[in-house]
## 1
Amino acid sequence: MARLKVAVLISGRGSNLAALIAACAAADFPAAVALVLSNRADAAGLAHAARAGIPCRVIAHRDFATREAFDEALDLALRADGIELVCLAGFMRLLGADFVTRWRDRLINIHPSLLPAFPGLGTHARALAAGVRFAGCTVHFVRPAMDEGPIIVQAAVPVLPGDDEARLAARVLAAEHRSYPLAVRLIAEGRVRVADERVEIDGAAGQMPVVLNPPDSA
Ligand code: GRF
């Protein structure tokens, strides 16, 4: 089985990277993390790649005079390794429109909210302040505008009494660790199409329960 060659771009902790590496360890997973890139040499997540024997490279944005030059260096590294899908996983640099266009529909991101609600930073605090009863995460194709683009996978988690940012973030993060491997698998299986800026997924029409928060037994 030829596995889809995936690169993961990180800036920090790398728990989503770790989840992707773990998923790819299964013999029948149709993708492989072939390269990890970080814009920060001190990104803790680099250790996950090192432990798994995955090639890592640090391309420090500070070493480049312009955003375009940085993006170009990323692009060169990705192409040199024959990367077919790029996963942003806590990558804290905005990529320019040229890069995003070049990698259109081969570049995905995970965001810790149910987009289009709460794009940008501080999502959990804003969700709590808004009083929403569900939070969640979104895996989407990247477009030039931040946290926008066709949605591939979403996971919903309840907001519970007594939640603070840390508790909610932890619940959402556990959902992220299931959502990102699922999105990569669906893409690698060739089941994901973008039509009219919406995602269609072959064979994903299963029934799902309606979940109420609070439960109607309350
Ligand atoms: C995640 O919450 C992700 O959704 C957001 O940044 C965070 C990265 O966490 N884009 P990690 O580095 O994968 O642990």
## 2
Amino acid sequence: MATAPANNMGKPLPRLDGRLKVTGAARYPSDAAVANPAFACLVTSSIARGVIRAIRLDAARAVPGLLDILTFQNANEIRPLKTFSEGGQAASSIAPLGAPKIWHDGQIVALVVAETFEAASEAAQKVIVEYDEERPTPTLGAPGAEVQAVADVSKAHKDPGFGDAAAAYEAAPVKIDAEYSTPTQHHNPMELFSTTCLWADGKLTIHEPSQFVYGVKNGVATQLGMNPDDIRVESRYIGGAFGSKGSLTARTAIVALAAKRLGRPVKLVAARDQGFTIATYRAETLHKVNLGADRGGRLLAYLHEAFELTSRPDNYNVSGTTSTAVMYNYGAVATKVNIVHADRNTPGFMRSPPEVPYMYALESAIDELAYALKMDPVELRRVNDTMKDPADGRPYTSRSLMQCFDRAAAAFGWDRRSPQPGSMRDGDWLIGWGCATACYPTQIAPAAARVSLARDGSARVQIAAHEIGTGAYTVIGQAAADRLGLDIERVTVELGDTALPPGPVAGGSNTTASATSAVVKACDAIREKLFRAAIASNESPLAGKPVAALDLAGGRIVAGEASEALEAAFKVLGQATIEEYVESIPLSLSPEAMEKLYQGRVALAGGPKGDRLMFAFGAEFVEARVHARTREIRVPRAVGAFAAGHIMNPRTAHSQLMGGMIWGVSSALHEATEIDERTARYVNDNLADYLIPVNADVQTVDVLFVPEIDRDINPLGVKGLGELGNVGTNAAVANAVYHATGVRVRDLPIRIEKLLV
Ligand code: MOS
């Protein structure tokens, strides 16, 4: 089949939704115009472990305008729902308002509804909850923490490993034995967690920022015992998600229930601090890493035991050894992931959930090994580069890691680095240069799409994929415009609504590959119909030509020099539009995967699964400057080179990677949710105290693309890169700080006090 000229794909088109966003015209879910809404406020637990003894509502009920208060005593009718990891949609197995038991600080204990936000807020303050409190376990290593091997609690889990890693490590002439840790982190999206629910004729509409509207629809249907067809979820714009809006949290069904009881729309916008406990977060992790190498740097053994925090009732884990165990050409591997139960809310996805903490540990250890070997850290990675899984020989479909290192190293000026720690200096500033590998699995999910082309040459694309700030409207529009030979201005894209065909969860960086696969397939069906009509008409200059010779370009049907307007083919067809609804299933998945999608369940192919390894790669270099006396830390310069298959739009891709690298600097130097050890409560649960970088903390960030063509991963050769940029940055910064100071910080974030040694 002829391919449409690449007039859109691969171009740095500005965002289709850019103007709407900067003018405020884009409607986020909490902006939904609903008639006569009541306003809700949450009451959340002030203890982390125990039981509610009594709830006293008299004072709250006396607030003028108070309409309803839901607690476990009067509203415990929400049915259990499986967690995301178990194939359901819930962020946690803790049933919303299900019982008096308190599992964690900030658990929702009541929903107060009133005529105004102010009244709801005042009444929420006046709800008195009495608890029988027990001493909570706050974090890893605290008394009461319960450790379990993930392999013991999950049949599906396999800890990667091969060979006799312990013996290979013992025998290795050069060894690294180190422990690394990462802190609790919260997504802190600018947009707060909101839910607006309205009922009409027994049907429920939910406006809620979500990375998976079909997940919310089906999850709430289960919770409320409804037919999913009677629920519509809308989330056309999302003001930051990063994983926090990927699974269904407790608030949604509670608000739906409140709106039903009241017979009136109910709107909840949870407070900033409540967002720390009513949604998910990145849990703290601990890593014991052993590397053994020969004197030439070849990795003989890689051992990695990890500990990840989770809640008491749930087995949530990210298990990033699935990525680290295929990263290099190890001689032998032994890994084990443990979960540690404590009295905390259940963690969840946060941008590159497995790779961020695990690659920090591995890439720090690799850097330590380079110093032990007196070898350049780039060369050490080259010696151990591999094009296949060292365990079983499965090949990578493509892997351009060393091209990324070479490109970024050249741009960074790495050859001017003096290897000795503390040997580079600019006045009072110690200068350090460090680097690390970035990687992210290439994943793809089933998707459906409806595309229609009108005889006037305008097109409409409909798919319940999600715009989480990544540029989904734009790249999906580009794919359709390209395939239909139209200017992007002629294409309307609709996303984020369960009234549309189902798109996949906006997680695992799969949206571009999955959604455009379905959209292109629908466009191809339209092309086929148009072309058949064009060649069938005797009056057409295209009459009798083979379909394969035809193409769409500039709003016309073309074949070499010959062409005709779309209108002529539409006339032959006798219709004003051609509409195609298609389903697209990745080759390696069965048709049941499409059924799962309609049911709001996740089926992802690719990454380390399957008979070939599919990953995007990058190399990140940073310059750290540490003040010789005050130990103030600055990262004035970062360079990343990335290979992620076909780049649909260099502008939006650049934004994702740059944002990712900045986030990496943020989590290396700034971010940590502090936990009060006595009460297991988050202390800095606001944007003033939760540290993130400002412009002065991040100066130059250069993003380079290494061209890569991979036709095996999916039809458009798209690897996905939303989560690639912030993998590796933590280690690159830590490695640079070591190079500047000779102090190896193995416990993130790296702050001044850790360098005062
Ligand atoms: Mo992303 S953390 O896979 O939603």
